[in-house]
Specification:
The chain has 13 helices and 13 strands. By secondary structure, it is an alpha/beta fold. The chain has a 7-stranded mixed β-sheet, sandwiched between helices. The two termini are 28 Å apart. Helix 7 packs parallel to helix 8.
């Protein structure tokens, strides 16, 4: 069963000071120091509104230690402070467990639910129960195609197919001929869409490689073996920031000259782009996904506002290269990019 985390985040200088010291050293594990930073910041937080203290619950498909979701959570918590929201957070990378967590929030009669739809079939029932209970829902990150069908107010994230197409176009600009797309979570529709999108626009040949994302040694050995057996591969695309560093190690172990590129941004990725270890990253602004999800639920509760006009609210993709890395590195260190 996934851990459940709650809390709110302070604004202004307190946020920068606390996160800059604490999260930079622990975001790779999403561990105790990150939680301590949240608790310390929560003690200082003050709402910017006098609306009722509604309770919003977020449930994501994150596994333990995924830095991407740390950033989403940071954004949600800061918006919760501003909007006088009691914020609950839970996650599980197993679809049925994630569904049970959503059901638990419905049973608690929370005032709003935020959920990712990486494996949408498992979430259809829980979201139907939320709708029946009159609980507004916003989907984030994964599941833009199913969001409206499942009754959500809107979806916040990037269109994964469009993001994949952007990767294919960037590989073309870099003169790449043969690429490997690393899928670390089987059954995640968004991951399939990313690789399919890249294959659509890439002029060269792109192959998929499925790995067990919860086992980094397995990820490294699988990539290394493929690079050793096929010296023509000149680009490796990972679908999450934590896997980029592992792909670099696999490249070195295989004696390959392939460029390592990745989806998502964190402190290590920003440093890798700056040093040239990585070629480019696709940023979907996870902080914005968390922040806007809470803020839009608050706007709906307060003023019946809905953004998007029935279409997803896009937070990406943005191609980040060495040219932008230095500017974004400080933000990544504090856990907001």
């Amino acid at each position: 069963m996934a851990r459940v985390q709650t809390g709110v985040r302070a604004v202004g200088a307190v946020l920068v000071a606390v996160l800059g010291v604490s999260l930079a050293g622990c975001s790779s594990t999403g561990g105790k120091r990150a939680e301590d930073a949240r608790k310390a910041a929560a003690a200082q937080g003050k709402a910017a509104v006098n609306t009722p203290r509604w309770t919003f619950g977020m449930v994501t498909h994150s596994g333990d230690g995924d830095t991407f979701w740390d950033i989403v959570q940071n954004g949600a918590e800061q918006a919760a402070v501003k909007d006088n929201i009691k914020f609950l957070y839970a996650h599980d990378d197993e679809a049925q467990q994630q569904a049970q967590l959503v059901d638990s929030y419905v049973d608690k009669k929370v005032d709003g639910i935020i959920v990712s739809l990486a494996k949408p079939d498992a979430m259809k029932g829980p979201l139907a129960r939320a709708k029946k209970a009159g609980i507004p829902v916003i989907t984030v990150n994964s599941g833009s195609a199913e969001s409206k069908e499942f009754g959500a107010l809107t979806h916040i994230g990037q269109d994964e197919t469009i993001a994949g197409e952007a990767v294919g176009e960037e590989l073309n600009k870099r003169g790449k001929k043969k690429a490997l797309c690393i899928l670390h979570e089987q059954g995640n529709v968004g991951h399939e869409q990313r690789c399919d999108g890249a294959k659509k626009t890439f002029d060269g040949k792109l192959q998929n490689l499925y790995v067990t994302g919860t086992n980094m040694p397995d990820v490294q050995s699988s990539i290394e073996a493929r690079l050793q057996s096929d010296k023509d591969i000149d680009a490796v695309v990972t679908l999450g920031a934590p896997f980029a560093d592992t792909a670099v190690k696999a490249k070195d172990g295989a004696g390959s000259k392939a460029e390592i590129d990745t989806f998502d941004l964190n402190e290590k990725v920003a440093a890798g782009l700056k040093s040239g270890t990585l070629g480019f990253a696709v940023d979907q602004q996870p902080y914005l996904q968390g922040y806007e999800a809470v803020d839009l639920l608050w706007l709906y509760k307060y003023n019946a506002d809905v953004l998007g006009g029935g279409k997803p609210v896009l937070t990406g993709p943005q191609i980040i290269t060495k040219d932008q890395a230095a500017e974004l590195e400080d933000y990544a260190k504090r856990g907001t990019r």
